[in-house]
Amino acid sequence: MIIVLQDAGDPRVSDYVSLTDVQLRKTKEPAEGLYIAESPKVLRRALEAGHRPRSFFLAEKWLPEMADVLEKYDDVPAFVGSSAILTEITGFNLHRGAMAAMHRPDARNIPALLAGSRRIAVLEDVTDHTNIGAIFRSAAALGIDAVLISPRCGDPLYRRSIRVSMGAVFQVPWARLPEWPAGLAMLHEEGFTLAALALVKDSLTIHELAARNEQKLALVVGTEGDGLSAQTLARADHTVMIPMCAGVDSLNVAAACAVAFFATAGSVET
To answer: How many CA atoms within 13 Å lie on the side-chain side of 155?
Structure first.
């Protein structure tokens, strides 16, 4: 259902107003059960994952590119306007051409998610949405079966996370643990070995961890500034470090995840 916008103040496009206001989006989107999928490629990946659109929002020149999607979902409003009107609504130049307001999927059942997994990532209070997106992209590429996040972790369905992950947040199943760090006990109950990435004396190296060939492994990483909390470290079976050259004490959390995912994925039979 194509609707041509004539006025940036049209109340029907409230989902797309002031998308550059981070705090507004972090509050508005989860509360209203929506998230924003940005760019035709990401939008298509969300639809392929079974997510339901509540509306589309695109520049006139992108109508041919999106014609098949709009035809398939012809009962969903598709707001179309000039670049000037779309920019006035969102607060930025919509150079990626198209976006959609999507219904958030139901929360996943954590025991069911763990039952079919052998390698998972666990994020404690990672708040930078660029890092979250990069972690999910590495997880999809390097054999991570699922991602669990702490209650204070950033939102994988925030538009920057989705964009950086290139839609991998739709590919890798994830869930938010309701209790932290007590919820980690569930991983032990499901037979996972918890390996916490931390700069702690007498830690295993990532190579030593990979050589152990754990049947089920959960790689736990912490927030960008302080790393993992003492309470979380106390629940880990091992602490693990990535050996680095002199003069460099640590890696960005997303880079560290990519290294750890790659190193440990090689020990899994395929």
So the answer is: 19
Taking all residues of the chain, what is their mean pLDDT, rounded to a whole number?
A: 90
Residue 15 has φ and ψ, to the nearest 5°, of -65, -20
Angle between helices 129-141 and 253-265 (to 10 degrees): 10
Three-state DSSP class for 105?
coil
Residue 159 near residue 186, CB atoms below 8 Å: no
The residue whose two tokens read 């004539």 is: 6
Per-residue confidence band for 269, with pLDDT thresholds at 50, 70 and 90: very low
Q: Tell which residue, 127, 184, 189, has the closest CA to residue 158.
A: 127
Which of 12-16, 74-78, 93-97, 189-193 is predicted least confidently? 93-97
Cα–Cα distance, 89 to 199 (Å, whole number) = 46
